[in-house]
Design brief:
With about 450 residues, the chain is mostly helical. Helices cover about 75% and strands about 0% of the residues. Helix 1 runs antiparallel to helix 4 and helix 9 packs antiparallel against helix 10.
Length: about 450
């Protein structure tokens, strides 16, 4: 009797996958660096271009474009393969950077940010499909751990580099500099896919795609109105209400049948990741403000707390990538760690509590999202039929983006309405994380592939 021993999966940096893996990480790092750096440069950009009244719109435009591009890129990747949308996404991302970098007015700058969001959205969703097609399933956790690691360095040095460039050169180089190095990174990725069959699709064109793009556009506008309106206090209330109404109508058309009630299996994926990431982001928006205004930390010291969270994210992804914890443990335990981190950092509001607790708290929250986030991605690919990976990943991406926008908007509105009560804002984020922990077992249930059916009505 002969016993066959299954060989362990190859390393993501083995000779077979090295060039592809490096190209993937390089693109992720550049997208992450731009996302982290732009927040540092934006005050100077708005002042220089005389466009403080469009400050929030510069962020909302990118978000709105990403929602549209996520829907388009997901289905495009399924039908034509991931390489086409990645190529178009890179061109769009670079074009947006160039428009923003050379913008003579704030209006042109916002337009550049919109184009940049379209490109970035196409890149990100298509990279997930590329992982599904290019790597065996056993390697997916390790690849997504690499994705998470790709965000760590930009999180640590992005704001500092952007600040140095703004102070010693010109804010335009924050955008033009990234544009110069995106193309070589994309070419490296292209070299890693040479000779593969990744350019072919495995699905038929979706007859309802045009309708879904319309709903994606409405959802994007709704998300932008919610984000912009929530930052304008009472003056933004009409915009906020219009955004909520549009979102209630449009979002169900983009999610999955049963998603909004967290039906067991794949339909609960967008809700789970949206709640978890929304809770983390909503709390993270308040943390620097709380540490500076209440505990009188310097901006650099307050920023280090967030850096520790980014390191925790990478560590959590690395632990999950090693296969030492199961899927349900990563999902439910990750959500509970986020809740614990938010709860602990709330205690820092008390002067007698050591500042060191803030670092510990956000390291725990980072560990939690680091374990949860890539696990959702792995299971979505695992549960999807061949040719549906892009559409399914897009649905999760839309859910994550929209839930996060709403979570941040509600937290900000509560914070303002209660006279800047940090406790209320943190409490709301804490509840969201607990709800995510409740949803986690529903998603982790074993279900047949292909149950992530799209709503076509």
């Amino acid at each position: 009797m002969t016993t066959t021993v299954e060989a362990p999966p190859a390393s993501v940096v083995s000779s077979t996958y090295r060039t592809l893996s490096i190209g993937l990480v390089a693109l992720i790092v550049l997208v992450a660096f731009e996302a982290m750096a732009v927040a540092t440069a934006m005050p100077v950009v708005a002042r220089d271009l005389g466009g403080m009244h469009l400050y929030n719109l510069a962020f909302s435009a990118t978000l709105a474009a990403q929602v549209i591009a996520t829907v388009l890129g997901g289905r495009w990747s399924d039908v034509r393969g991931p390489l086409q949308p990645i190529a178009v996404g890179v061109v769009g991302f670079v074009a947006g950077l160039l428009v923003a970098g050379f913008a003579p007015t704030m209006e042109v700058f916002v337009a550049g940010r919109f184009v940049q969001g379209l490109g970035g959205g196409l890149i990100q969703v298509s990279l997930y499909v590329l992982v599904a097609r290019a790597y065996p399933p056993a390697m997916h956790p390790k690849v997504f751990a690499l994705f998470s690691a790709g965000w760590v360095v930009p999180s640590m040095v992005g704001p500092a580099i952007a600040g140095f460039v703004v102070e010693n050169a010109d804010w335009r180089w924050v955008f033009l500099g990234v544009a110069l190095i995106v193309i070589p990174s994309a070419l490296l990725l292209w070299r890693g896919t040479a000779g593969s069959a990744l350019s072919g699709g495995t699905a038929e064109p979706a007859p309802g795609l045009g309708r879904k793009l319309v709903w994606a556009t409405v959802t994007a506008v709704a998300a932008a109105l919610i984000q912009y309106g929530s930052a304008q206090a009472l003056a933004g209330l009409p915009l906020l209400l219009v955004g909520v109404v549009l979102l209630v109508v449009a979002l169900p058309k983009l999610l999955l049948r049963g998603s909004l009630r967290a039906a067991p299996g794949l339909p609960s994926a967008p809700v789970l990741r949206g709640l978890a990431f929304g809770a983390l982001t909503a709390a993270q928006v308040l943390i620097p403000l709380m540490l500076i205004n209440v505990r009188h930390m310097t901006p650099i010291s307050a920023g280090l707390v967030l850096t520790v969270g980014a390191l925790g994210w990478s560590t959590g992804s690395w632990i999950k990538g090693r296969g030492t914890i199961g899927h349900l443990t990563a999902l439910r335990g990750g959500a509970l760690l986020i809740a614990a981190g938010i709860g602990l950092i709330t205690l820092v509001l008390v002067d007698a509590v050591p500042i060191a607790l803030a670092f510990l708290a956000w390291a725990l929250a980072g560990l939690g999202i680091g374990a949860l986030h890539p696990t959702v991605s792995v299971l979505v690919l695992q549960m999807s039929k061949q040719g549906e990976e892009g559409a399914n990943t897009a649905a999760v991406g839309v859910g994550e983006s929209v839930f996060t926008v709403v979570a941040v908007a509600i937290t900000g509105a509560l914070f303002t309405a209660t006279g800047e009560a940090f406790l209320v804002g943190f409490a709301f984020a804490f509840v969201l994380a607990l709800v995510a922990a409740f949803v986690a077992p529903r998603f982790a249930q074993s279900v047949p592939a292909g149950t992530m059916e799209e709503v076509t009505s």
